[in-house]
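INFO batch 0412 | record 1 of 1 | parsing
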Amino acid sequence: MLLYEKYAPSSLNGIIGNASAIAAVKQFGLSVLAGKLPRPMLLYGPSGVGKTTAATLLASTYGFGLVLLTASDYRDAETLKKKLLPAVSLRGLFNRVNLIVFDEIDELSSQFDKGAQAIILQIVQSSKQPIIFIANDYWDQHIAFLRNYVDKVEFKAVSQADLLSFLKSVVGKEGASVDEGVLRKIAESSNGDVRGA
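INFO prediction complete | emitting tokens
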């Protein structure tokens, strides 16, 4: 097992360095639990800072079903119609909430066929299920069509101090001996990417 898998957070509180973003994600979940359907959220920021982890942990924390779609799942309108339109229009089995997560919405966005954007907007406007979009770049022109329909939540690069502290805890749990200077260099060179560090 890779270290980033072994030490992946098991709760929303375990995601380091983005307290305000995590608070917004939790509030989104609490709104859904209260029977409300909040506007879709767009989690954005650099790779490796916990965006997808936050969405998946939100589902498990609050007992939601999870429908996780990656870029290859939604690049054309036909796939979206088949996979999602039926799922978003109804509650899950026993009235269970299903959290719909569009991961990497900006990754293959330049390859969307012309109908995919329209279907995504139709899903946003008609869904009875909560929706989260995940992107690296909020300002990517290919996802500009979403901006009026989502609440944006920024995930920032994790600070070197937080990364260093995290790396020290991993070394301790592994029972290893690593010079602090080496850990500091890893924290500096990772550019705030926890998974990469």
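INFO post-check: Residues 66 and 156 are 24 Å apart (CA to CA).
INFO record closed
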